[in-house]
Design brief:
Distance between the termini: 44 Å
Structural class: mainly alpha
Number of strands: 0
Shape: rod-shaped
Largest sheet: none
């Protein structure tokens, strides 16, 4: 092709057809520029396609993370409804018995902690690392995902857990109590029951803990609801 163009130029120059040569030269330049622009466009298209594939892959990881979180939330709420809520209410209503603890030793959970839930951030971290490419893909979805995680990482992974921990029972404070060893070994529980139901400060703590736990459950249920909506939107773009 190059030899062909050279031959045309040579013929034109030899025949002194300057005007025709200039027109040809301009046309040749235009063709070269168009070729370069087409090559750049193809390169940009390929790069854009690769970036979109990467972003869609991240969306799928986020979908998997949220789905895993939802399973954990369901387990958390089930534990709350079947174990912790009845335990709290039995203590606060003043009708916790030795038989209750023998049948449901897990009721002592009102004393010694709570079931942890932590949001999976694998996909979200990958999405943040793609911040330079936020112009590609579904910007509305990307924005919603960012808002979703920024909200709940603060409200659940930081604030809520810290608030919950303020109410978790500190066993070290009661090592001198007569019921301490039996409590740890899940044996004789009368002293523990008396302490929980008759000590005003302990009852205040359990009441506050119960209220915080309910708010915590509501928060992770809201996370589940909004997470399901994110999953639907990810599915919609595939």
């Amino acid at each position: 092709m190059i030899k062909f163009f050279r031959k045309i130029r040579k013929n034109m120059l030899s025949e002194r057809k300057t005007v025709k040569y200039l027109k040809y030269a301009i046309g040749e330049i235009v063709l070269v520029v168009i070729g370069i622009l087409i090559a750049l466009q193809i390169n940009n298209w390929n790069e854009h396609r690769k970036q979109n594939e990467t972003l869609h892959g991240i969306y799928q990881i986020i979908k998997e993370d949220i789905a895993t979180d939802i399973v954990e939330i369901d387990d958390f709420v089930d534990d709350y409804e079947k174990t912790r809520k009845p335990a709290f209410e039995a203590v606060l209503n003043g009708n916790l018995t030795k038989e209750d603890l023998q049948k449901h030793p897990e009721y002592l959970s009102v004393l010694d902690g709570f079931k942890d839930f932590a949001i999976n951030q694998r996909g979200f971290e990958l999405l943040k690392n793609q911040s330079n490419d936020m112009r590609i893909g579904n910007q509305n979805l990307t924005s919603k995902i960012n808002l979703f995680y920024n909200k709940y990482l603060i409200e659940i992974n930081i604030a809520a857990i810290e608030i919950m921990r303020e109410f978790v029972y500190n066993l070290n404070e009661h090592k001198k109590s007569a019921w301490f060893s039996s409590f740890l070994l899940h044996k004789e529980t009368k002293g523990v029951i008396d302490f929980m139901m008759n000590n005003p400060l302990e009852k205040n703590r359990i009441t506050s803990y119960y209220m915080a736990y309910k708010i915590y459950v509501q928060e992770i249920q809201e996370f589940k609801k909004n997470g399901e909506e994110i999953i639907k939107q990810i599915d919609a773009i595939n």
